[in-house]
């Protein structure tokens, strides 16, 4: 009877009317999503027009245009970024605004965040972008690790045979004939959609998990650990790579709040940004500045440049199980800084100049035009240890990380739960309207800053932030990469830690 009713003209009309109403409701519900997509496309078009001609041809395999990174550095193969003044790089109160930008023209300053755009030579950069064009649409991407920036003098010579089956000449030249697997992080706004398209193109990149479909893959991607999904030891454009997929919002939140330091920690070290997005540039600038502030709380009144950069580079390794179980070179942090000191200077010099509580001891040394190229230089810093200054540093630490530090001192001071919750509410970053409040140190921040064990407590907070997500990601590799590739990855890490590779 129900079928006969539907077959009648009146029943058919009701179905059509209901369907049209449902479509209208769906369109209304998704209006903000479509509007956001239009703004993103407009942002990409604006970014491409403002970038140099050599960088404006970055087009995806599907025909979508990616925003390319325009470097303000010279065209030399080593890169020659000239830091702008701190006034230009960091406009007043830029941290006090939520980054909700539609395009690069809305950045706090036209040169804002260009310290992040570390240069390689053009051919190498194009080869890396050529690899990424083989994937579905990516909102933000960077390459990192020893395959991009050497971490020891033996990086190229230690590998007698390139692991790449048929890599472009530019990659072989950059890696000096030896070679390392190249690591990427790819940020996408919809991980399930990305994996669905990527499974159609590159099913062989996935372990047995890929047979279960993009829904299961994205569930493992988003719900466990730090929110990454890695496919190691895959070949694209004749090049051996490892790539991790992360949700765009997860990446942005880690950069601003330090939920896990899994992605923020990688971007605190020299990386090659390949596809950009304006909100991530702002978020990463906050991340870099937070890394400096956190490291200042771990360092004494006077310290050297290398001590500072080793502290920054070591943040994401505190609590990392790979450092505890011998699957990482114990000198890894020292190697990174010693062989990338120039890039660390490019990343952090302007930020250090913008902070009122730290300064170079030898201002004449850094006034020389070529001081950043002097790798033998190890200049010294002095920081103001006044509790009021340090209380402001504590208050400006990333939200999720700062709360961990607060909880450590709650236990130490035996603060009752209700009183502590009131203190947390008072220290919220957001105001009643959802905007950001100007961060002002509270009495609790001042009390923390005066404690003699502050450096120890900050270190414990870093370990708490890093340990669990990193441990889960390491275990997750057994199913995302598959047992065979996971074992290969662990074995090679062990060999490198013992100095065999």
Automatic annotation (TrEMBL):
Polar residues compositional bias, start-end: 39-49, 80-89
GO biological process: cardiolipin biosynthetic process; CDP-diacylglycerol biosynthetic process
Co-factor(s): Mg(2+)
Compositionally biased spans, kind Low complexity: 62-79
Region described as Disordered: spans on this chain: 39-107
Keywords assigned by UniProt, alphabetized: Lipid biosynthesis, Lipid metabolism, Magnesium, Membrane, Mitochondrion, Mitochondrion inner membrane, Nucleotidyltransferase, Phospholipid biosynthesis, Phospholipid metabolism, Transferase
Keyword rRNA-binding: no
Membrane topology, record value: Peripheral membrane protein
Pathway: Phospholipid metabolism; CDP-diacylglycerol biosynthesis; CDP-diacylglycerol from sn-glycerol 3-phosphate: step 3/3; Lipid metabolism
Name of the protein in question: Phosphatidate cytidylyltransferase, mitochondrial
């Amino acid at each position: 009877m129900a079928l006969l009713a539907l077959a009648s003209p009146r029943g058919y009309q009701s179905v059509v009317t209901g369907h049209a109403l449902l479509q209208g409701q769906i369109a209304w519900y998704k209006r903000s999503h479509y509007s956001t997509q239009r703004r993103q496309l407009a942002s990409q078009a604006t970014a491409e027009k403002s970038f140099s001609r050599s960088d404006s041809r970055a087009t995806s395999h599907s025909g979508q245009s990616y925003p390319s990174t325009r470097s303000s550095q010279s065209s030399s193969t080593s890169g020659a970024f000239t830091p702008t003044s701190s006034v230009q790089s960091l406009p007043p109160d830029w941290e006090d605004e939520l980054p909700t930008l539609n395009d690069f023209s809305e950045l706090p300053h036209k040169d804002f965040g260009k310290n992040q755009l570390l240069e390689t030579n053009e051919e190498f950069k194009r080869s890396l972008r050529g690899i990424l064009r083989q994937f579905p649409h990516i909102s933000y991407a960077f390459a990192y690790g020893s395959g991009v920036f050497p971490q020891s003098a033996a990086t190229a010579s230690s590998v007698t045979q390139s692991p790449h089956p048929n890599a472009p000449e530019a990659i072989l030249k950059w890696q000096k004939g030896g070679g390392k697997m190249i690591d990427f992080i790819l940020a996408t706004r919809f991980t399930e959609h990305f994996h669905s398209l990527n499974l159609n193109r590159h099913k062989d990149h996935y372990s047995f998990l890929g047979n279960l479909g993009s829904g299961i893959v994205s569930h493992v991607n988003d719900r466990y650990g730090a929110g990454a999904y890695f496919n190691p030891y895959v070949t694209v454009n004749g090049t051996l790579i490892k790539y991790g997929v992360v949700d765009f919002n997860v990446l942005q939140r880690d950069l601003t709040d330090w939920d896990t330091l899994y992605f923020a920690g990688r971007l605190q070290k020299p990386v090659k940004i390949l596809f950009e997005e304006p909100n991530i540039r702002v978020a990463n600038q906050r991340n870099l500045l937070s890394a400096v502030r956190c490291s200042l709380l771990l360092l004494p009144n006077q310290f050297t440049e290398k001590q500072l950069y080793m502290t920054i580079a070591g943040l994401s390794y505190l609590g990392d199980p790979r450092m505890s179980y011998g699957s990482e070179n114990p000198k890894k942090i020292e190697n990174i800084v010693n062989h990338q000191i120039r890039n660390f200077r490019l990343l952090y010099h302007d930020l250090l100049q913008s902070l009122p509580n730290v300064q170079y001891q030898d201002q004449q040394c850094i006034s020389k035009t070529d001081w950043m190229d002097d790798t033998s230089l190890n200049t010294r810093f002095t920081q103001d240890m006044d509790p009021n200054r340090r209380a402001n540093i504590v208050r400006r630490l990333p939200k999720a990380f700062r709360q961990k530090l607060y909880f450590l001192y709650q236990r130490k001071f035996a603060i009752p739960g209700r009183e502590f919750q009131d203190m947390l509410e008072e220290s919220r970053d957001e105001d009643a309207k959802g905007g950001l409040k100007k961060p002002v140190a509270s009495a609790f921040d001042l009390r923390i800053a005066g404690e003699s064990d502050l450096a120890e407590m900050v270190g414990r907070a870093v370990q708490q932030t890093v340990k669990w997500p990193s441990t889960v990601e390491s275990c997750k590799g057994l199913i995302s990469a598959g047992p065979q590739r996971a074992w290969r990855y662990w074995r090679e890490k062990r060999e490198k830690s013992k100095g065999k590779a």
